[in-house]
């Protein structure tokens, strides 16, 4: 299987502080991989470097085999990214925002309409389609973020805490969506919810204090979420 997401020696320093240091892992086509770590471990920083939103101080990121910094457009066409704080543009509606995002991704006419209608249904946005994003609840804003990540039907999804701030019904909906997407896509998702990892991820990459401390099958971290929680604590307790 070709690797669809590759982090090779990624580091980001803020002064002396290493937010991420020498992070190396790859995710093969078709895999759903969890990206775990305590608050401040460096997950969002690494995801931003993987998606080209932050330039690494060291290392290389590749999406679908394309270098994210040297071959940005080819990498971006294959990538959908849900950033940690969801979409900005509070005055736009989901409809106008997704139309704008679609146009920047070279979609138009019937194709753009079909894709907008598909993400509207998949992300259950029908009720808020014409409301200002700034007035939506956190859960709905999160779903608008998911919709923009999926709009151009990318092969690779990098999702920074896709279920954070959602109520249990919405969490269930997003998990089902990720499971259905997993049939055709490669997914890296960060989360603090270990049950979620069991539910949807076959593989776990765990970082602590900016460094990779575990990379392996979910089953190696434990066969249920209690065992996994214990192992998580062992691997992430401050040295
Ligand atoms: N622009 C910045 N300047 C200085 N420090 C930063 C900057 N951005 C992030 N950091 C620091 O880098 C570390 C890693 O942050 P990051 O947001 O990647 O963690 P995280 O694992 O995503 O955390 P969380 O689970 O809380 O979202 C944190 O200590 C954070 O304070």
Automatic annotation (TrEMBL):
InterPro entries: AAA+_ATPase, ABC_transporter-like_ATP-bd, P-loop_NTPase. PANTHER family: ABC TRANSPORTER, ATP-BINDING PROTEIN (PTHR43335:SF4). CDD domains: ABC_DR_subfamily_A. GO terms for molecular function: ATP binding. The keyword Cell membrane does not apply. Belongs to the ABC transporter superfamily. The lineage of its organism: Bacteria, Pseudomonadati, Planctomycetota, Planctomycetia, Pirellulales. This is ABC transporter ATP-binding protein. It comes from the Bacteria. The keyword Protein biosynthesis does not apply.
